[in-house]
Structures are given as C-alpha cells and as structure tokens.
Amino acid sequence: MPDLSIGASGWSYPSWKPDFYPAGTDSRDFLRYYAERFRTVELNTTGYRLPAEDQFRRWAEQTPPGFRFAPKLPGNRARMVGEFSERVRVLGDRLGPVRVQLINARDEGMLELLLGSLDPELPLAFDLAHPTWDGIEPRLAAAGAVRVNDLEHEAPFRYVRFRDPPYSDDQLQAWAERLRAVDVPVFAYFRHEEEPTAPQYAARLAELVVG
Length: 211
Fold this sequence. Notes:
With 211 residues, the protein is an alpha/beta fold. The chain contains seven helices and eight strands. It has one domain (4-210): TIM Barrel. The protein has helices at 30-35, 53-61, 81-88, 108-117, 137-142, 169-180, 197-210; strands at residues 4-8, 40-43, 68-74, 98-102, 124-128, 146-147, 158-162, 186-190. Strand 5, helix 5 and strand 6 (146-147) form a beta-alpha-beta unit. Helix 6 (169-180) packs across helix 7 (197-210).
C-alpha cells in the first residue's frame, strides 16, 4: 500500500457545520477536529498573506504527530521566497510538501530561480497549469520535486489536486486503483466547496484505497 495522505484544501469553513463539524463546534476547534480525521491539509492562506510565526506555531500545536500541512507559495512573488522558507519551517515536523504555483507560460529562468532559492530540503510540488510546461517533469524530478497531478514521470513523491467535483463512486474507485499502484508517498487534496463534500470525498477515497 502507498504512503497516502488525503485531505482537503483548507478546514476553516463554518458552512461545514453540522454535516462535518458537529453543531456548536467553536471555529477555534475546527483544525483540531479535522486533524483527528485526516493526515494532511492544504494551507492556501500563505499564497495571499504570510502569517506570523506564532500562527504557524499554533497550527502545529493543534495537530497530532504525523499530520502535515501543505503551504502554498505563489511563484511569481520570488522576493518572498526567503521569508516564506523561514516562516513555514516553524511548523517543524508538521511541514509537508510546498505547492509552488506558477500561472504563466513556461519560464525556465523563473523555475531555476525558485529551485535555487528555496530550501533544498523542502519537498516541492509545482502547480503548472499552462500546457507550455509539458515536458518539464524530468527537470523537476532531478531537483527532488514533482509536478502537481503527474503520476507518469519519475518523482520522489506525488501531489494530486481534485478540482472538478462532483465525483462519483466509480470515479473515486478508479482513482483508488491508480493511487494503489504508486510506490512513493502521495499527498491528495479535494477542493473546498460550501457543503462539506471535500472531507466526504477524502474519507471515501481513503476507504477505497485500503479496500
């Protein structure tokens, strides 16, 4: 079985009550409740504003050993790379892969700048939506990184984002079979919606992979 961590893109959603978070749950307890049920979560707030060190420390303290945060780094903001690397390290052993988002067409100079500036010990997943990036996967693998949603090329780990709900049980079963065949650690995340579909899909996929 693969080393598989499945979760959602965030946790701080009051609309997930009462179907996921029990009615009456204080929002300050959302992360603790979430982390009792999943092993990982995407930390998208870091893509908009870098929280203070104390905030990272509080997040880490609310989660059990083995839990991993996947913070987002907007790749076009290269000036914040040094501060970002230092700040997310406050998560300690709760720090998982970093998702580096580059929304523009292929720019290998920017890629090399990021690879050379980020802590080489950080597991990096590059979110490259533009098709001009196709074929960059071997370069990423050589740097110990991976392209988001790539299961085909050599890589030290996999990072999967499920962005197109709804998902039928047959679709989740097909994904479970694909992930079961992976022989490196996998991190997988379902997109947040107003209804708590993300944790529902995450729990179901985990069940099917084991199943």
